[in-house]
Amino acid sequence: MAGGDIRQHEWRVTGMDCGSCAAKVRGTVERLPGVADVDVALMAERLRLTLDETRTSPEKIEQAVRGVGFGIAPKGALPEKPKGGFVLPDGAFPHAPESTGLGGEPEQDIEPAGDVPASWVTSFKGRLVIVTGTLLAAAWASRLVLPAEIAQWAFVLATLIGLLPVARRAFAMARSGMPFTIEMLMTIAAGGALVIGEPEEAALVVFLFAVGELLEGVSAGKARDSIRALSKLVPKTARLEMGHTTREVVAKKLRVGHVVQVRPGDRVPCDGEVIEGISGVDESPVTGESVPRLKEPGAKVFAGSINDEALLRVRVTKAAEDNTIARIVRLVEEAESARAPTERFIDRFSRVYMPAVVGAALLVAVVPPLAFGLGWGEWTYRALALLLIGCPCALVISVPASITSALSTGARNGLLMKGGAVIEAAARTTHVAFDKTGTLTLGKPRVTDVSALIGSEEALMVLAAGVESGTSHPLGQAICAEADRRGVDAAAAAGARALPGKGAEASIDGTTVCVGSPRLAAERGALTDDLRSRVAALEAAGKTVVIVLRDDVPQGLIALRDEPRADAADAVAQLRTLGISSVMLTGDNPRTAQAIADGLGIEHRSELMPEDKATAIRDLTTDARVMMIGDGINDAPALAAAHVGVAMGSGTDVALETADAAILRNRVTDVAGKIRLARATMANIRQNIAIALGLKAVFLVTTVLGITGLWIAILADTGATVLVTINALRLLFFRPSGASETARQASPEAPGSGVEHASATT
Predict the structure, then answer these.
(1) Is the same domain home to 474 and 433?
(2) Tag placement on the chain: N or C end, fewer CB within 10 Å?
(3) For the segment 696-707, what is each residue's pLDDT rounded down to a tens digit?
(4) How far is the C-alpha of 325 from the C-alpha of 441, rounded, in Å?
(5) CB 654: neighbour CB atoms within 10 A?
(6) Average pLDDT, stretch 84-100?
(7) What's the total number of domains in the chain?
(8) Which ranges in 196-298 belong to alpha helices (H)?
(9) β-pair type (511-516, 581-585)
(10) Which residues have C-beta within 8 Å of that of residue 208, sequence separation ≥ 6?
């Protein structure tokens, strides 16, 4: 078998309304030879699997899925309307032109509006509700003018017409190896009711089942719409500059390097960099940040944000498929595959639950008549009603519906969490560990003191700026900025390299120049008593000190200070209110760390190398549930060691692609918001499970006792599913942020400024 014959395939599957639907799709394809790693995402309507095409072709996969009543289309193709089902409207399905004038003459430049969304009335399930309802009403009306014996046949006809598509799907599922489905239970229950002479109740049950199926679909569609709304934030068209003119083109065809114009009131069509113009830009659609950001040449802008004031010329820096909105949508959809432990347990439970109920129904039908001589008709009726209780739809969807709503709410508020497992872990958090620079502090230190030991201050800055030239480290950038302010040109340096956790060094004029921590100076035998006392005095004032060495001879000191974020103290207070302990982990010296920690009211551990942070996290996790907040770069080991790793970073690649979660707004109070959202989600899940199991338990008992009948049983099933979904949708209106006004006014710095790298002063 050639390795090239095994490939990963992905389709969009339409018509899945509940967890049982997803299970049916999964069960159908898992039984085919050569299929592995099956992933079915209900809310994302995604089927992904690994396929050995020498044993089963992709066409056979599609045929199998269509055979059990679902629509299926390859990724990127127009969605297919399911046979015996319907596609809920999710906006227009665009037919994008192949050419947009960006590389040749187009046939058309503007993307057409697409298909008009269909009403539920025109869908198959909608028509089934109307037909079965009309037949049921007609049957009831016939009783007023026709003899009872003839009117009975009207109910039989209504039952058979409504049951036919359900039975067809039930037997298709059975042929695929899944006999225990709600369709099969419905077919047996309604057919059995006809056999024992209860056609009126059979017709009512079929009608209520059709109504419940429609409501399940509508509810699932509402949950999907909340995520799809994210992708609609990006405009479909953009004003592309072509020479001295502009042309309106399809936004998704923009390429890196193109220049677009964004007029006041327009949405930004791409991730890019402002090259001309000054304007306030509302980034709330992307990050949830309510205060517009001032954008000027050199500033980054995100696709989907809104230009408020003046014309901007923007150079495209990311292709449409890689812009911030696209990555957020992709991460939210992918997160559905990272299922919570609770969800996995419920899946295992439901596989046992339905066969157990079917077995119980069989015993109810047979044991009382045989053992106690009771009436066959009455106990068969009770058994049929019990069958309708057996479908675990409400239970199966109880977790994914809540998780999907929470992921959508989090994305709208700049809080990304990669799946249910992360949400469940975040809800159990007892300790939060913060990196300091760029997380609790602004990450924008400034030089406060320059003290030369040999030569002038300017000469000292020439050396320091030469070593730090081109660095991305906040301290290095601050030193270079101070050199620029003083009008000092950086020395020409060669072989520059970082000394992780200690500083940096380079070769200048044939000598080795280091800019590093006092610890580095001590290691190299350059920390004299006089130097040590100077460092201590500056650190006592809450400043970070670096020492410039030339061939291990001290040249001078540079002191810097990084101020805490405006909302950092409030964030720690909010976490304390939630019963969560906080600790600051930093590579800074004890005095500077103490000064910052005292101002924030937080514990601290200082002089930690990157690997020391990971060790500290592992120590905490032995008896606590730990969330680590860092920048996602040099904190990667610590983020990985925590139960939940959270990256700070205003839409940066690192923040979106690393760690378990991300905070897009650089707002420290969002840590508490993330935990509040996770706890609200788990509470919602517990409510859903209680609703699903509670209703089932009540009606199992009342059905066996003969208190409730078939139509109540079907209401218990579909009604519970609808209630669970509606309850999950409440999370869409949850507000993760606290009441504190400080949280709304925090972090005035530009997006993405909180990025740091390994240093002793982290």
Answers:
(1) no
(2) N
(3) 888 888 878 888
(4) 27
(5) 17
(6) 38
(7) 4
(8) 199-231, 284-287
(9) unpaired
(10) 711, 714, 715, 718
CA 410/CA 390 separation, integer angstroms: 34
Burial class (CB in 10 A: 0-12, 13-18, 19+), 535: buried
Which residue type, as a one-letter code, is found at position 574? Q
Backbone angles phi, psi at 301, to 5 degrees: -130, 155
Is residue 557 within 8 Å of 535, Cβ to Cβ? yes
Stretch 239-259: mean pLDDT, rounded? 91
Rounded distance between C-alpha atoms, residue 39 and residue 335, angstroms: 12
| Token pair belonging to 438 | 């760029």
The Cα-based distances of 330 to 38, 282, 506, 654 in angstroms read 18, 23, 42, 15
**Alpha carbon 725 to chain centroid, angstroms:** 18
What is the C-alpha separation between 213 and 205, in angstroms, rounded? Answer: 12
Q: Which of 679, 694, 716 is the last residue of a domain?
A: 679
CA atoms within 13 A on the CB side of 228: 15
Three-state secondary-structure class, residue 153: helix
Domain holding 282, by residue range, is 237-322
Estimate the crossing angle of helix 199-231 against helix 324-335, to 10 degrees: 150
**pTM as predicted:** 0.65
Helix ranges (DSSP H) in 289-375:
324-335, 341-372
What helix, strand, coil percent values describe the chain, rounded to 5?
Answer: 50, 20, 35
Task: Identify the CATH number of the domain in which residue 279 sits.
Answer: 2.70.150.10
Cβ atoms of 658 and 636 closer than 8 Å: yes
- Number of Cβ within 10 Å of residue 748's Cβ equals 11
Instruction: Check residue 469 and give its pLDDT.
Output: 87
Phi/psi at 313 (5° precision): -105, 125
Q: Do strands 661-663 and 431-435 pair parallel, antiparallel, or not at all (unpaired)?
A: unpaired
Which active-site residues does the annotation give? 435
| Residues 312, 676: Cα–Cα separation, whole Å | 38
Beta strand pairing call for 237-242 and 245-250: antiparallel
Asked if the structure places residue 714 within a domain, the reply is: no
Domain boundary among 546, 561, 576: 561
Contact (CB, 8 A) for 663 and 648: yes
A 10 A CB-CB count for 352 gives 10
Return mean pLDDT, the chain: 80
Question: How many Cβ atoms sit within 10 Å of the Cβ of residue 571?
Answer: 29
**64 neighbors 202 (Cβ within 8 angstroms):** no
Numbers of helices and strands, H then E, in the chain: 23, 26
Cβ atoms within 10 Å of 160's Cβ, excluding its own: 18
List pLDDT tens digits, range 138-174.
888 888 888 877 888 888 888 888 888 888 888 888 8
**Least confident range of 197-201, 236-240, 618-622, 650-654:** 650-654
Q: How far apart are CA 538 and CA 33, in angstroms?
A: 71
